[in-house]
Design goal:
- The structure holds two protein chains of two kinds.
- Chain A is globular.
- A two-stranded parallel sheet of chain A has the order 1-2.
- In chain A, helix 1 packs across helix 2.
- Chain A is mainly α.
- The longest helix of chain A has 18 residues.
- Chain A is built from four helices and two strands, in the order H-E-H-E-H-H.
- Helix content of chain B is 26%, strand content 19%.
- The longest helix of chain B has 17 residues.
- Classes of the chains: A mainly alpha, B alpha/beta.
- At the A-B interface, helix 1, helix 2 and helix 4 of A face helix 3 of B.
């Protein structure tokens, strides 16, 4: 297929999205990530029954926290797709990148840079 | 266990916004089990607060620690050497832990990060229900192991009241009538005749009516 997707995306592999905890999502923003999205299997198709459902709830919680602390809840998203959906993978990557570009950089990254300058 | 739930982040921010060096202290016991103030919750809250203050352009140091129990001297003592580094402590322990911390570190302001709710059980994942009001004089032996003090809205000791409908409390149909539960279980235990016996007037002096309570055990006291 040789599909391309934005090179700004860094992939972190986990055995199941159920492994993704709230603190992992928050720490990535604390460290300066502009956006994070979790790609899980289709709902109902989790090998561990409900790993992706748990991940969705954690993403929702992260979204609430990020909104409260002024970083922006929209910077974290959850998507579901199956491993054979490469075109959808590329489309989500592009869509998420565009959304984050529109939102601008993570404000704390800017503050940190400003302080260092 | 003591069941608590975390305060809204906005309220916590309001409590601690005037400080520059804050220690968030979790507790490894009840509040860990009810996912309100254990190591994980400390990490999440610390991360959120760091982001908030960074975004506000404020330089605030937020450190994390989780002790075995905040209601015991020996574990709180572990913090003694580091305490002078902090302007304030945000304790995610129950109200007991917060107060014990405040008693022990008298000159350091201590703020609660959770609302302590009740003595309860984990009914299912993410659901905790009240089971005990620590009235100080347990009658569970006579009520088939179901507590009318904590589970009946009126604390009726010879129930049910007239508001019990189809097994539910008149307050809310999702609240089971404690006395219906008691009767059902007495029937199951083949002890329904005990239901006929009137419960005498309860001595409420062992409850909060007698003021703050204390248990003293001379056999284990040092």
């Amino acid at each position: 297929m040789r599909l391309s997707y934005p090179s700004s995306i860094k992939i972190i592999k986990v055995p199941c999205t159920g492994k993704v905890d709230l603190i992992h999502l928050l720490r990535s923003f604390e460290k300066g990530a502009d956006g994070v999205y979790v790609l899980g299997c289709l709902e109902g198709a989790c090998q561990f029954n409900n790993g992706n459902i748990r991940a969705r709830k954690r993403v929702e919680k992260a979204r609430q926290i990020l909104e409260t602390v002024g970083i922006g809840g929209e910077r974290v998203q959850m998507y579901n797709l199956s491993s054979s959906e490469a075109p959808l993978f590329a489309r989500i990557a592009t869509e998420m990148t565009e959304k984050i570009i529109e939102m601008g950089p993570n404000p704390i990254k800017l503050k940190r840079k400003k302080k260092a300058a | 266990m003591i069941v608590a739930e975390q305060k809204p982040i906005e309220e916590i921010i309001d409590e601690i916004k005037g400080y520059q060096k804050i220690l968030i202290a979790g507790c490894n016991e009840c509040v860990t089990v009810c996912e309100a103030g254990g190591k994980k919750e400390v990490a999440v809250l610390a991360s959120a607060l760091r982001m908030y203050f960074m975004n506000q352009g404020k330089e605030v140091r937020i450190d994390e620690v989780t002790v075995e129990r905040q209601c015991d001297h020996e574990y709180l003592e572990e913090l003694r050497n580091d305490m002078d580094q902090y302007d304030a402590v945000l304790s995610l322990a129950c109200g007991v832990g917060v107060q014990f911390m405040a008693e022990k570190y008298f000159s350091t302001p201590v703020y609660p990060g959770v609302n302590t709710c009740f003595l309860g059980a984990s009914e299912e994942r993410g659901v905790w229900g009240e089971r005990c009001q620590a009235c100080g004089q347990c009658i569970l032996g006579k009520t088939a192991g179901i507590c009318p003090v904590s589970r009946c809205a009126k604390r009726v000791l010879n129930g049910p009241c007239g508001g019990s409908t189809k097994g539910s409390c008149e307050l809310n149909k999702d609240i089971p009538c404690a006395w219906q539960l008691i009767v059902d279980r007495l029937k199951e235990l083949d002890r329904l005749d005990e239901y006929e016996q009137l419960t005498p007037i309860k001595d409420w002096s062992t409850d909060r009516a007698g003021g703050p309570r204390k248990v003293v055990r001379e056999d284990v006291r040092q």
